[in-house]
Records
---
Amino acid sequence: IVLTGGDDRLWKTWGFPDGNVLMTGEGHTDWLSGCCFRPSGTQLVTSSGDTTVRLWDLSRRGCILTLRGHSRAVRGCSWHSCGDFVASASMDGTSKIWDVNSERCRYTLRGHKESVNSIEFLPFSSTVLTSSADKTLSLWDVRTVSRL
């Protein structure tokens, strides 16, 4: 299964290698910039130009949580390998670590001077890698909310 998101405000799962659409999700009000499966494979997260991050339950075929807190478009998102945290990167110059169990922002990472364009958790760690339009990469320890 392949997961995509696009300017049409939709995410889609596709059968591979056949290329048939298996499922489509709608709810964002602007373009999708990122989407990825939860490590368990039962849910996914999307990020959008509408400033939100959304969690979707595949069995319910719908959005189960909308995370708000960025002031500009969200450029990327990723799951932590444990499946309890989502990271988001925004054009507002911040990144956020969201606790999906408590449904709130746990940490806001500040330090880039321009848009944060991507974010990834390093596997099985508390370290996040961000890239920015300010032409820098940063490694962050999300336990201490500090750059490494």
---
Amino acid sequence: LKGQQASPFVLRARRSMDKNGMPWHLRYLGQPEIGDKNRHALVRNCVDIATSENLTDFLVEMGFRMDHEFVAKGHVFRKGIMKITVYKIFRILMPGNTESIEPLSLSYLVELNVVAPAGQDVVSDDMRNFAEQLKPLVHLEKIDPKRLM
């Protein structure tokens, strides 16, 4: 959906497929803050909401359309308020059928994520320190989402 500005309003919907009946999670991610280039992490507003099973029907009725769909298989680890996910991304061969998938790559994706109040720049230093510990195995970098578009 497009709001008052010309930029699109993007929502992400996800759910665990390990058990039937798991709730959907809806996430709004704001635009990345343009700030200090020395900051070690990308910073943006985030709103997470647990929802019911009919989330996808509701979003279609609101005027949203699906842009992409994928399956992520892996593990979630926690270190304090940091969430570390290590997973492989799989392409869905037939839309809506999560049984028919193929890996996009042989590599794993490692993601560091922290939800913190505004102005907590110390958290980005913690993320950088954790990334330094993984350096022999993993190259972590701050990704510019505009570069992916």
---
Amino acid sequence: CPVPLSQAFPLPSLPRKQPTVLVVCGPAQNGAVGLVCARHLRIFDYEPTIFYPKRSLDPLYRDFTTQCEKMDIPFLSYLPTEVQLINDAYNAVVDAVLGAEAELGEGGGPCASILATLKHIRIPIVSLDVPSGWDVEAGSSGGISPDVLVSLMAPKQCARHFLGRQHFVAGRFVPYDVQKKFELNPPEYPGTECVVALRGPQ
């Protein structure tokens, strides 16, 4: 995982009065970001719960899972299809199901029912890098509609179509040669922050 994941989540996007967070993780890199996000939230006294139905066999991702278990972060065995149960139990959902590395067809199969549920919940959704179900360039084609987007390294083309309340980028760690190669033109990061807001609350 090239992303320093513990730096990749803007805690101010989740007010302290909203401590219960459901983190929904996919099997690939974005799911790993979600696992470390859950651990990061737990360190700062939030109450994350993880739904991780298709666990990766990658040793690094398995280590992330073990770390979460040792921090007593609960794992759900299934995601309720009755969205009101989710609305009542949690104050926010972190979408770490699919990311920029996902192929166009990956929104089907086991992810389809997850996305169908996330489309109908009423609590805020925070998507990591690319909202699940979105094309990385074209944007939404029936995917979810997150309230907050956290772009990793740099905003993807689809971020132009993001209409939610807040947009953050976590990319201070990107090496200068990579910035130059891809002409990333990173924003100014205040102080020692590793996350910067591109769009404030709306």
---
Amino acid sequence: LRFDEKVRVVVFKSEVKGVFCAGADLKERANMDDAEVGHFVKRLRNLMDEIAALPVPTIAAIDGYALGGGLELALACDLRVAASSAKMGLIETTRGLLPGAGGTQRLPRCVGIGLAKELIFTGRQIDGQQAASVGLVNHTVPQNSEGDAAYQRALTLAKEILPQAPFAVKMGKLAINRGMEVDIASGMAIEGMCYAQNIPTRDRQEGMAAFREKRPPQFTGK
């Protein structure tokens, strides 16, 4: 996906009705020794980092339970859409654990430090409506009879992104992600570097031409 230039947006959805991702298999985990557990969790953390580093926008379609590592997967995405009936939570402390695949870092950056601490310390589960109210998800929708309301809303959101200039969107994502980790002056420098890379693109010229000619732009990602 990272190197396929035809890929413009990635949507993560589940094929299991009622469950986005239920997290680690604790029965499997119970058969591992301490070293194996550490290696397993490191691989999970690396996977989430790879998802977060995808150059194109990513959307998690949460149509059911997103618990533990399942919510960490959703947090690794750029955008999240949930059914109102979905259940989300970093429940690790209820099993004698703590989030180990990015949850302690990505949840505070998403909802703020105080609320993230409360949710992690208590292991509380919240539904889609509550998740929207605290900014954990971008949109919440009533579940439909097919059980894929969040996926359908995610597709609608993806279709809003698709017409936009692909390279500009990628640079926008890079500027936001890198800029959020530094002070604002450094962030401005990062934005400037990303903008400079966008200036010589054909898509920028096409955008300007389309504006002058009062027509929709035809972006190619070049």
